[in-house]
Amino acid sequence: MTKKTIILIGFIVLKFLLQYFLLSSEYELQRDEYLHLDQANHLAWGYLSVPPFTSWTSYIIQLLGNSVFWIKFFPALYGASTIYIVWKAIEELNGNLFALTLGATCVLFSAILRLNTLYQPNSFDVLSWTVLYFIVLKYIQTDDLKWLYIGAIAFAIGFLNKYNIVFLLIGLVPSLLITEHRRIFLKPTLYFAILVGLVLILPNLVWQYNNNFPVIHHLKELSETQLVNVNRFDFLKNQLIFFMGSLIVIFASFYALLFYTPFNKYRLFFFSILFTLIAFIYFKAKDYYAIGIYPIYIAFGSVYMANILKNGWRKYLQPVVIAVPILLFIPIYNVAFPNKSPEYIVQHLEKYKKLGLLRWEDGKDHLLPQDFADMLGWKELAMKVDSIYTKIPNKEKTLILCDNYGQAGAINYYTRQNITAVSFNADYIEWIDLTKNYVNLIRIKEANETGTELKETSPFFENSSVADSVTNKYSREFGTSIFAFIGSRIDINKRIKDEIISVKNYR
After folding, report:
1. Residues 6 or more apart from 467 whose CB is under 8 A from it?
2. Pairing mode, strands 421-423 and 461-469
3. Torsion of CA 466, 469, 473, 475, to 10 degrees
């Protein structure tokens, strides 16, 4: 085993260890994770929220026991794979051991580490961007047409994971057109490769068509509720924060792609990042959507830095350059990961606020970072619903209806009863079982929606009560109430059908 291989294995092992040790046991899963895990119980070629790839991973996790270990394993695996691809890119660019070590260090100690703590499509999205850029690099090097087919397959898999990867093409296509690589559009193989990619994503496109393109509704909803609060200056500022320890390497890559002779043939990468960032800024995208851009530039920058630091007194700067990402990671470690208790964060609000970590999607500051608040209160909610359910007569005819997908997913993940919670929110509206003749209703309402629930719904049932609520004050679900309505005087199934039609018509 060579020295390089041993070092690469060391980085990958460290990556996995960090992903597990950066999470405090005080926190549970994040709301999106519950939804993605529940998709394993409803396999399809598409969902209202995401393409199908994540559900396939969730199904594997379910086969492995659905434990937190495996839930966290896969994003860690995708992150480790990203390091590996950057390592291979540096080798293809003839980088030495210093360049390899620098590149792996920069990728490891970056925002990708934070991204990989959550089981979401984002981790595989970053890997997909990195793989596609690597394929472009290989094609430029070899002019081998097989890389066009490999690229089409890689794009299709990335597309089936997260539609965000379309932005890569938005940046890449004009970059090809304004460089000598425009001749690629004269090659018939390119269009056969595109056809292969279209065939692979066709089932998802058909699903979108058959369901009236819910992705358009999802994007509209994002634009109205979340992206409207996105500040374009903050987007650019956060790009610097995401790879704070690697900025010198990334900016070195920009210089090298323009002026370093061995990189002349890769100049399209310089234009690609410009076009892609412009597109993200124009559409007011969330800042983390762009994280997948940077790993390949770390590869270019690492090779260039190794070249300029290899002779004379400059070689003594090599340990310093490697140390920078690690040293700058330390203060980030103290605030960007759920490794501090909620009480600690509340007592040290100022340092979180300075970095904008307390600002939620509603554009306001709160006590905890949004992702952290989204990791609390779920188990409490599920256990209380379980307790209420066991006391209800005719419990097998009880509908558990939630306000949001996080509530439904968490109940389904933690429940010890034979129950399935649903919602009119996100994918759950498609999963409501109307074959049962419901006579009872357990209603979970968000804190700001509880005021009139008892008054409005109790006339339709023989017995009604506010059974319990979420009491964790640091949870985003704090104050969420659990209502128990027993003995229906109306046809619940008909009401649910009417509501489903209403929600779908609105979309």
Report:
1. 384, 388, 442, 482, 483, 484
2. unpaired
3. -130
Give the model's pLDDT for residue 230: 61
Radius of gyration, alpha carbons of the chain: 25
* β-strands 481-488, 398-402 pairing: unpaired
CB atoms within 10 A of CB 40: 18
- DSSP assignment of 5-44 equals HHHHHHHHHHHHHHHHHTS-TT----HHHHHHHHGGGS--
Find tokens 């490794």 and name the residue.
339
Look at residues 377, 433, 376 and name the one whose alpha carbon lies nearest to residue 401. Answer: 433
Q: How many residues does the chain have?
A: 507
Q: Return d(Cα 1, Cα 10) in angstroms, integer.
A: 13
Q: What is the reported pTM?
A: 0.92
d(CA 6, CA 97): 12
Alpha carbon distance 65, 490 (integer Å):
40
Give mean pLDDT in consecutive 10-residue pieces for the chain, a chain of 507 residues.
Answer: 91 94 91 96 92 97 96 97 98 95 96 93 97 97 95 97 95 94 94 96 94 75 56 79 91 95 95 94 86 96 92 82 91 86 87 82 85 93 93 89 94 91 90 88 84 84 90 92 90 83 69
